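Appendix B. Chain record.
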Amino acid sequence: MRAVVQKVSRSSVTVDGQVRGSIGKGLMVLIGVEEGDTEKDAAYIAEKVVNLRIFEDEEDKLNLSVEDVGGEILAVSQFTLLADARKERRPSFIRAARPEEANALYEKTVEMMRNKGLYVGEGVFQTHMMVDICNDGPVTILLDSRKIL
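Structure tokens predicted for this chain:
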């Protein structure tokens, strides 16, 4: 499972002209589920996102988590994070999990983050979304549950 985590001052996701998820200060998290991922991968991503210390403390050091600063999370499923563009110009998405499997693990990841007491807004699975991201810093972190060591 892969995730792109961006520290944001605000973020929202719109589908068919309607805002479906919106947050203020917090984390925008794009989540891609790979074929063969399990709940263990979902738990790894959820734990990392919630505990990443990428917010400034009183000494202006990146030392605080989204929970520490009372922030929110906006999660959006994005299969294109599993794209392989090494060979041709058109990326291959063969490593992305099938939609049913991907949605179940995406939802499990969101549930695990919510279980930490955080507000987690969401996009809409398998739809065309317009995502507004106001990256703060900019701070962008890449997570991959298969690259733990």
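Further analysis of this model is presented in Appendix C.
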